[in-house]
Design a protein that fits this description.
Elements: E1 28-34, H1 39-46, E2 49-55, H2 71-82, E3 88-94, H3 100-109, E4 113-115
Parallel strand pairs: 1-2, 2-3, 3-4
Cofactor: Ni cation
GO biological process, one term: urea catabolic process
InterPro entries: Amidohydro-rel, Metal-dep_hydrolase_composite, Metal_Hydrolase, Urease_alpha_subunit, Urease_asu_c, Urease_Ni-bd
């Protein structure tokens, strides 16, 4: 409570976070990302987005971009490429298989959502 004339009640369920020397902000969640280039992550962070969920297979352009990642191999490579970035990233697998086995395979590979 450091603003004059402003009272912010702190409830009993509030967690206190030591933020000395850090920049701490509430982060936004973007649930519809076409992962086409790493620069998207910088742009997202600059606009307050700290969590991104989507898909793709990397560099792409125009209408070739997608919001789902097809199959375990692509999911694995995309997850590996995320290691260097300071944000929360999730992969949406291609969820239009007619049988559960293909969907289960993508979840085991690391997909946390399915895109229909």
């Amino acid at each position: 409570d450091i603003q004059p004339g402003v009272t912010i009640p702190i409830g009993p369920g509030t967690d206190i976070v030591a933020g000395e020397g850090k920049i701490i902000t509430a982060g936004g969640f973007d649930s519809h990302i076409h992962f086409i280039c790493p620069q998207q992550i910088d742009d997202a962070l600059n606009s307050g987005i700290t969590t991104m969920l989507g898909g793709g297979t990397g560099p792409s352009h125009g209408t070739y971009a997608t919001t789902c990642t097809p199959g375990p191999w692509h999911i694995g490579r995309m997850l590996q490429s995320f290691d260097a970035f300071p944000v929360n990233l999730g992969i949406a697998g291609k969820g239009n298989a007619s049988r559960p086995a293909a969907l289960e395979e993508m979840v085991k590979a690391g997909a946390c959502a399915m895109k229909l």
